[in-house]
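Priority: medium. Attachment 1 of 2:
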């Protein structure tokens, strides 16, 4: 069983243009994500998928693997484009703005698919550290059922919710199927692609872990990341 990690990365961002190349303690953010992903022993290969030559060159310059893609409407389409071109069984979609990503996070999403062939899609979640985190609409919340499957995702505050971490694991065939599904009403309302899976009647298994994670959506988030990494 071959498991591949694919990191979709685009230069254009309405909230933070050029985000993958912003430097954090001397290294571009995309390198932090790539090196964090490489720590997982479950991944046989890690690839950055981008339509921007600057990001492609950055990755290859530090010795990473990268593949150029056409312009895509979303990260899932970019990951699916690369997945179609390679031989693999499971694909981990690793968000390019999670510089604190590590093997524990990746394994929490991937391992359930390795152990249980009935699981088509997986992700990860952790506890919120502060009330401010819970209130922040940039932090996605997830509700779980008793079997650790996602009931709902939202940017709004939800009772008993966990903090969703930006990683997904898919069986390759399901990823291709997902990428071909039309956008759904709740997905559009919440601006969350994963809701398309739930709205189409499929399940997402959520691996629960305990870690500190912060994605970079704004320059304020970048300052938080710098504090965490500088403190060791």
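Attachment 2 of 2:
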């Amino acid at each position: 069983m071959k498991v591949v990690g694919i990191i979709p990365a685009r230069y254009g961002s309405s909230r933070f243009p050029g985000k993958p190349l912003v430097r954090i303690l001397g290294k571009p953010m995309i390198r932090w994500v790539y090196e964090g992903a490489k720590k997982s022993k479950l991944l046989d290969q890690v690839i950055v998928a981008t339509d921007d030559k600057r990001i492609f060159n950055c990755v290859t310059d530090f010795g990473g693997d990268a593949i150029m893609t056409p312009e895509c409407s979303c990260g899932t389409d970019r990951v699916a484009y690369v997945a179609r071109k390679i031989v693999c069984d499971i694909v981990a979609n690793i968000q390019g703005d999670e510089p604190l990503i590590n093997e524990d996070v990746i394994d929490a999403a991937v391992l359930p698919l390795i152990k249980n062939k009935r699981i088509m899609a997986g992700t990860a979640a952790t506890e919120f550290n502060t009330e401010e985190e819970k209130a922040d609409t940039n932090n996605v919340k997830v509700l779980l059922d008793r079997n650790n499957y996602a009931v709902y995702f939202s940017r709004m505050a939800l009772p008993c919710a966990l903090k969703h971490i930006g990683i997904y694991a898919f069986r390759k065939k399901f990823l291709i199927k997902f990428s071909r599904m039309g956008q759904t009403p709740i997905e559009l309302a919440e601006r969350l692609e994963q809701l398309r899976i739930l709205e189409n009647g499929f399940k997402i298994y959520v691996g629960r872990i305990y870690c500190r994670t912060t994605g970079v959506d704004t320059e304020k988030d970048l300052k938080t990341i710098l504090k965490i990494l500088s403190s060791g």
